[in-house]
Amino acid sequence: MSAPTLPVKARTPIRPARVLLHVFLAGTALAWLAPLLWALYAALRPYGETSTKGYVSWPDKLSLDNFTNAFTQSDMSHYFGNTLIIAIPAVLLTLFLSSMVAFYVSRFDFRLNLFLLLVFTAGNLLPQQVIITPLYRLYLLIDLPGITMSGKLYDSALGLVLIHVAFQSGFCAFVLSNYMRMLPHELTEAALVDGASVWRMYWQIVLPLCRPAMAALGTLLSIWIYNDFFWAIVLISTGENMPITSALNNLSGQYFTDPNLVAAGALLTAIPTLIVYFALQRQFVSGLTLGANKG
Amino acid sequence: MTTDTNGENPEAASVPPPGAGAPPVAKTAAKAAKKAPRGHQRLLTRRDRLTLGVMAGLPTILHIALVWLTALASIALAFTTWDGIGFDSIKWVGLDNFKELFSTNPQFWPAVEHNIVWFVVLILIPTPLGLFLAVQLDKKIRFSRVYQTAFFLPVVMSLAVIGFVWQLVYNPDTGLINSVIGANKPGHYIDWIGDPDLNLWAVLVAASWRHAGYMMILYLAGLKGVDPSLREASSLDGANEWQTFKNVIFPTLRPTNTIVLVVTIIEALRAFDLVWVFNGGAQGTELLSILVTDNIVGESSRIGYGSAIAVVLLLISLVVIIPYLVSTFRKERRS
């Protein structure tokens, strides 16, 4: 009646090398978090106290006042709203458009396919500053009276959505076409023989199968577009219309005498991305590496 | 940007089609199967073709109009002067913008140099650190997830926010460093952000802080693809940890290394947000991207001149992008 000998050897002896490794990793991790913890500590302390006692000192009082002040005084909810108006359509449109291109490129054998994919992929690798000058002029030229608040493509949420979609669809088309290529050809061939339309093949067969890749890309895009600073700085001129990251830049100019408040504002700005990251960690990481490694 | 923004992908491209490497009979069968879609295309109705045209055409028009035509326009404008007011004021000036840029602009060569320094620092410090961390975390140790999250957190945050967070560390009178080392008294300041000899390095610490986590994730993904039997074989042969890494693991990471190199070069060329928030690219931290932006956002709109800087940036990027894409797509065509 011998019991299975499995769990007995689970406890491995403590090896000094392992302990050393943990000490090293824990130390480095702590050092890595230090700037963020420092910002948090500063944000939790009232400005009056730090200005008399200095920043490196024991706190008399910790409170969330800086956070509530930063949030209400600077109308952050408004800027978060601006970001949502830009990011949600941009992410959805990018996924939609790039999946269509990927479908075209990967499921059919047209002559132009490889070239088309090359155009998209290369476009995404360009530094944004290479195209900004003419883009800025173009945005000023395009009149959209009544459609956008500014009456132009410039200084509008629509303008930012369009450039995000155009720029990011390069990356997504490339990743999705690789993903779609791995789906068995028989699936769509059978549908074609049965007389299904091309649109139906895309919408009802291929797209549902791409859900994992779409989820990963969606997470990645949300974070990238939320974090965008450059397009917003150049293509939005009215403070009111700015998304949160570039609005923060203005606010810090306003409040630069109170670093505690700036710290609170910066941390508040980072919260949505941190939530998305912790909630969808797996998708985020697989999205990053979907581009870099096999499936 | 971000940044971001890239991590493209040679590997997925090189996934062999099922059937590659199989006996010749299966190979011809696979070939026949590959040819099939072309035959089936005859099944496409006119409406299907129209649908496909719209499906591929719409995104392509948007992408080409906003990315490629503007890139071409940058090149054209680089040979002109234009104040941006009315098309009549566009004047062809040939190479004048470039001549001025290369000879008289005091910020240009420092900017080129800083972009190069940016790349060299990123590839020499955070990249090997990221690889080292990845190798350690790949050992299936406890709390691996916790460590991973700590190193990766900066990658999730906006570079602009990172700029603000690091200002709290560098600020001359209230910052962490000066407070700790006692350099926060007037007259004894170490001005990390204002001193042109220091500020580039200060920004690069923040940039490296973020880059290491990014590289760690890419290498972790690469390490997952290493065949465990290779490791076993190597330890049976009596190789120690370092020998195994050097002779067995690292060579198999070649595809990841390529991506890491491309990502790092592109990040170095794109570097912008952090510096813009830090000190707007004032003395000591000039970058090509900042110079381009200054010509648009600044009060004097010198479009031709700004475009000339953009063209320099474009040419440097293409030197990296073209060979990378050629090798990636060559693999693609083969499969």
UniProtKB/TrEMBL annotation, chain A:
InterPro entries: MetI-like, MetI-like_sf
Pfam families, alphabetized: BPD_transp_1 (PF00528)
Transmembrane segments: 19-41, 84-105, 112-136, 156-180, 201-226, 261-280
Keyword rRNA-binding: no
ABC transmembrane type-1 domain ranges (all copies): 80-280
Main localization (coarse): membrane
Location relative to the cell: Cell membrane
Keywords: Cell membrane, Membrane, Transmembrane, Transmembrane helix, Transport
Family, as annotated: Belongs to the binding-protein-dependent transport system permease family.
Name listed for the protein in its UniProt record: ABC transporter permease
Record organism: Streptomyces graminofaciens
